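Two entries, shown back to back:
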Amino acid sequence: MSTSTDHSRTDLPSDPGSPGSRMYAGIDVSKAKLDLARSGSGSGSDAVETFANDAAGVGRVVEVLAALGPALSVVVVESTGGLERPLVEALLDAGLPVALVQPGRVRYFAKGLGILAKTDRIDALVLRRFGELAAPRLLERRSKNQAELRDLVACRRQLVQTRAQQYNRRSSTFSKAALRSIDAVVGALDRQVESLDRQIRRLLEADDDFKHLDGLLRGVPGVGPALSATIAAELRELGRVDRQRACALAGVAPFNDDSGAVKGKRSIRGGRTALRCVLYMAALSAMRSNPVIRAFAARLKAGGKAGKVVVTACMRKLLTLINAMLRDGLTWDQLDVVKKLATNG
């Protein structure tokens, strides 16, 4: 007698039902269309409605979901490189609960359900199921200035990365003509980065909330304009969440890797990569210029910790202190740990 396992299922496990009358929706976004799977569609649990991905189609999706009223718990949308932004903004404008999730999380979720096939229809159904079982975090409505700041910071980051690539190419290029072309590209990138820095600075100074936040952050030794602007754009939850959540959002929280009697090495993962990269450079600066972080790093090194472990711990320490500052509305000098260090010094 032989047994076999079906690895090609395309259906979702049967929905056991949601508590009370809660409803969920998942929307798969592509360039041409929107596929909507929602609870209580009246055409079976696997019914998917398709709309054009244009202003009229987005408006129709909003109408359909708004009609569900308070029973709608969450609308799950997958991040698709910007194609989802008009839809997400329209849903937020309508006051609907929206969660924007990373494609990797949803794909792992689908595999966990035994779903290996991938189509737009299946993706919409998986997103709806993800909303039911994973309780994704809801988005908050961003102000116009915050959306503008996030785009400026992202553009600057991309240009800086491109400039670094050109510098790396230059070190291995020997043709004079090629070197002139690389230098011209680097010069253009330098000018664009400087222009973006000025625009970011003007935006931070023109918005009262940003200006106050920037003032607090720039008062921390080791925190420069890049980290300040990145936190303002990418981590507005800072100061409103506990330190564990703040570290997880920034991707510097250590996760266990244990099984039975085996105790694996803890490592960081996930989080917002762009923020973590900027925080890394800030931590290196803080290890030299920030007395609290410098003393913390020295203790870790004296305890035999590896170099990368020390830097990661300093990233986490710096973010934790900033989170405490913003939570309590304190300046750097008003933190207890800074006062104690000054007294002991």
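entry 2 starts here
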Amino acid sequence: MKKMLVGAFFTLSTVFLSQAQNAFSIAAANPNVSGVAISGESGAKMIRLELIRLGKYKVYDEFDMADVVKANPEFQANCYGQTCLIKLGEALKTDFVICGSIDGLSNKIAVTLKIVNVKNKSIEKSAIKEFANQPNEVQRMIEIVLKEMHGVEVDKVLQDRLAFKNDIITSNNVGKVNNSGPRIGIAGTIGKVYEFATRKQENGGLEILPAVSMIGYQLEGQYVGTENFSALVEGIINVSGLEQGQFIPTFTLMNGFRFGKGNWEFAFGPGFGLKRTKEGFFDEDNKFNGGADKFYSTEEVQSGSINGLAVNTQTISTQYGYELEKHAHTKGITAINTSFVFAFGRTFQAGALNIPVNLFYSSQRGGGFAGINVGFNVVKSKKSLNPGQ
């Protein structure tokens, strides 16, 4: 019997508290709406629906409010301030009035709600929250704001789906260091390129020092930029060997990544140049008595005789042990030469002056170039993130 009485007591207490909790009345005024394709009336209806679902108030509907709103023009438009909302609440004889704003701001929607205590003439609760730009989900946004205002748990999946992710800025004008400008440097030759550079001219070589100067110009464009990262497309026009009477042009197209406050950079991409080649062999063992490493072309072999010795394309291989191959040769046929370039470096800054310094390796079949280049440019102006402002 005692247990039954205790149970009945708790049941009645729960009902009483529930009724007491819902004893306060509330009216929803039309919110201010901008940048979102809904009306203020629709916004007010959404607020009322979510207040009813919240279960904490006796909610006035639009019909309860119609006569009062119609009788006073002040309540019909732009009744957003605390003073006007208090007057509206007093006319309706309600405990609270809720209003706010729903604003579409670029890539987000901001929902602001405030509950005015009519009797105390003060703001009881207020909250603002930013959401992802999903205009079809405004009612769910209102639901989240109301629940957070009243300490009610919000569904995490719903909250995550609508949350405004304040991602890092990705704009072509952010974190931008443009290193377009002249380049000078020096490169050493490696492998077959070294052999061609140091080979005697009489054998089709350049007969130069195995290191060459480089002078050129770099053009670059940024296609992704953040405060500490940039992705770049770089084009480098370069001429090498001028100091040794040579003209070796190249063009390199690279994809670059510049990162960190120190402006470190890594880049890679294909290079294109011109190369002359000729088919033949080098007489490394001086078997034809023309001198060690003398170059003989395929045409000379096909003539049938070299320095009085009978030869043909078959005996060169079977009898003399040489293979007819294409070699770099100053009197050969000109063709496109391709390479692949890797570069790593850093841009040093002194005021408006940028000084990029890069180590690089240009790899091609059998050899390549390795070296360093330095450039400079002056930052004339910085671009605004919002050019229209």
